[in-house]
């Protein structure tokens, strides 16, 4: 096996002279962020790393630091016992962001976006083993010698490894990593792009497309965004208000882990965009979730008992406290999400695209419908690339293509067979009158109801499978009102809900059975079916697929299937996909990337030797 790690001369234990040895990184003319890894276990590690990071940032590098620590209390203790050269250290900025003791990586953007810090809490060996990485590696420098079998898997060719021990210890660590290379059980591969700048087309002007445009331009990629409507957020992302809060389940599994981190990251993106001068109507006023019948109430109780959630994520409230928090009467106990609230999805989209345009790397094509796309390999015998076509002819040629067009994926031959379903949703607009202006938090039960904004509230939403028209429905309007009456049957303020103006908005959401988004490389469905038909079903077929990934269409990616939680999930999912396309380390584990892969449901059946029908 090829050795990727180049040992540098061991430093003194003081750790502060590292920057002198790592500055050669600036000469590599990186067109991506340099990725560094630090296991924080000693105060001198934090002090030395802070000195190093500032030196590299001064040299003009954009950096990503993967910071591993056993726990938040330990990180706080280390910080308290560390003497930094500068008062406002990188790690002070980290703690000012108030990260929570949660599973999976928490991505924070510090130093005006020049430093991305992924905080991973827990055992360092377990953390490194869970990190996704393509075959070319991802780490440029290790700021501490880690005796881990993952050292070589994660390192790029020529990666630097700084040790405050002996040269013998570094050699031993390399040999240990080699000795522990083993054949891993099947996992979906991390599809990655190369680091060279590419031209990327994004189809879709909603929350998914806007977040993808922002994530890619932040990485220096040239992007063309095609939006079929005359304005951004012209389809499902155009509601006046949308609730934002984490999806929790009694199982406290992968779905929870993703949505908690996604929710927190979305909040940070909204705040950063607002700080950059972009207007986004929102209010992180909290979300109060209550049951509407015995079954739903029991489920909420199981959720709150499933894990010791940080109080800032979720806590139990009785009916009296719920009424105090909401400002209106509530019939039953429930869960309060203090950091939740509501956001204008349309303004979120416009702000993200405006920020991307400020980079000078985004070309926006409004009112431009893409009707088809074809591989350049078939058209011009080029290795990679896609040609986009519209009603009037060719729209352009691009190295990469991201489908972020909601229900629009159903029109393309490459994606129409994916296991995702359209659900129509009508959101009712209710005038703010009577007691309704007193509402101080988002209510969520059988339906949801937002605090007032510009004289009205949003109430919803209907959920009709397969209906893809956008016409107003009186039945769905009344259905939204009935949901509120069923949820809070004893409350007088229900009399103030007026739907007589027939004001509403309709959108079609794409929903997956397991509630995860679809994010990643698009499977080659035709090649897959050919392989499937050749292998059949049963134990022999299952063994065949144990060590084979699904065939993919090179350079074709998607972000979709966001359901009704696109505000919460799209920013982090887009961030992970951009990392994958750029060959960088996403903040989430391989297990969560597997859970979002567009072909995951086919993969699960194939691994069991089952039929795809």
TrEMBL record:
<dbReference type="InterPro" id="IPR017610">
    <property type="entry name" value="tRNA_S-uridine_synth_MnmC_C"/>
</dbReference>
<keyword id="KW-0489">Methyltransferase</keyword>
<keyword id="KW-0819">tRNA processing</keyword>
<dbReference type="GO" id="GO:0016645">
    <property type="term" value="F:oxidoreductase activity, acting on the CH-NH group of donors"/>
</dbReference>
<dbReference type="Pfam" id="PF01266">
    <property type="entry name" value="DAO"/>
</dbReference>
<dbReference type="InterPro" id="IPR023032">
    <property type="entry name" value="tRNA_MAMT_biosynth_bifunc_MnmC"/>
</dbReference>
<protein>
    <recommendedName>
        <fullName>tRNA 5-methylaminomethyl-2-thiouridine biosynthesis bifunctional protein MnmC</fullName>
        <ecNumber>2.1.1.61</ecNumber>
        <ecNumber>1.5.-.-</ecNumber>
    </recommendedName>
</protein>
<feature type="region of interest" description="tRNA (mnm(5)s(2)U34)-methyltransferase">
    <location>
        <begin position="1"/>
        <end position="196"/>
    </location>
</feature>
<keyword id="KW-0949">S-adenosyl-L-methionine</keyword>
<keyword id="KW-0808">Transferase</keyword>
<feature type="domain" description="FAD dependent oxidoreductase">
    <location>
        <begin position="201"/>
        <end position="580"/>
    </location>
</feature>
<keyword id="KW-0963">Cytoplasm</keyword>
<comment type="function">
    <text>Catalyzes the last two steps in the biosynthesis of 5-methylaminomethyl-2-thiouridine (mnm(5)s(2)U) at the wobble position (U34) in tRNA. Catalyzes the FAD-dependent demodification of cmnm(5)s(2)U34 to nm(5)s(2)U34, followed by the transfer of a methyl group from S-adenosyl-L-methionine to nm(5)s(2)U34, to form mnm(5)s(2)U34.</text>
</comment>
<dbReference type="GO" id="GO:0050660">
    <property type="term" value="F:flavin adenine dinucleotide binding"/>
</dbReference>
<comment type="similarity">
    <text>In the C-terminal section; belongs to the DAO family.</text>
</comment>
<comment type="similarity">
    <text>In the N-terminal section; belongs to the methyltransferase superfamily. tRNA (mnm(5)s(2)U34)-methyltransferase family.</text>
</comment>
<keyword id="KW-0274">FAD</keyword>
<keyword id="KW-0560">Oxidoreductase</keyword>
<dbReference type="GO" id="GO:0005737">
    <property type="term" value="C:cytoplasm"/>
</dbReference>
<dbReference type="InterPro" id="IPR036188">
    <property type="entry name" value="FAD/NAD-bd_sf"/>
</dbReference>
<keyword id="KW-0511">Multifunctional enzyme</keyword>
<feature type="region of interest" description="FAD-dependent cmnm(5)s(2)U34 oxidoreductase">
    <location>
        <begin position="203"/>
        <end position="613"/>
    </location>
</feature>
<dbReference type="GO" id="GO:0032259">
    <property type="term" value="P:methylation"/>
</dbReference>
<dbReference type="GO" id="GO:0004808">
    <property type="term" value="F:tRNA (5-methylaminomethyl-2-thiouridylate)(34)-methyltransferase activity"/>
</dbReference>
<dbReference type="InterPro" id="IPR006076">
    <property type="entry name" value="FAD-dep_OxRdtase"/>
</dbReference>
<dbReference type="GO" id="GO:0002098">
    <property type="term" value="P:tRNA wobble uridine modification"/>
</dbReference>
<keyword id="KW-0285">Flavoprotein</keyword>
